[in-house]
Amino acid sequence: MAELLGVTWLEAGAVALATVGMYVALVVLIRILGQRMLSGMSSYDLAAVIAFGGLIARAALGESPRLAGGVIALVTLVALQALSGVIRQTRFGSWLVVNRPVLIMAGSEVLQRHMDRCHVSYPELHSRLRQSGVSHADQVGAVIFEPSGTLSVIRRGQPMDPLFFRDVVGAERLTESSPGRA
Asked: Of 12, 31, 85, 139, which sits most exposed with the smallest number of CB within 10 A?
């Protein structure tokens, strides 16, 4: 029974190393594919996340999972998450891990290149505009694709402080002469 619960020091190291490797691989994939991968999860997205978890667990724990190995994997993941939070506090870490917000619409103009970059479809954009009470493109001051993967809608006529947009990719499209710009 004890062999089903415990692990050797070599096995513990292997579990921790495999967990670190899978965590880093997932962070790199999210960084490459963009934050869109994690936003607005549909039932298909939820199924994919469950599958990711299964794959990570299988890779971390191997053929014969043990309680101690699972605890080591869990502690390693929590430690990596805490470490990534500390790294994100630095300028380089923030650049490395956090995606910048991207301007999707400047006024009524849709920036197709930015939509493609962020994997945002017109039905998703239109849905978010409707949820924000926008019924016509002329009512839009800006739409930003946020690092969280959500779309922020700023209505035309609302004052826009340039400080709030300085890190937004494409913010130069929001010129001082635009209506609603502070």
From this structure: 85
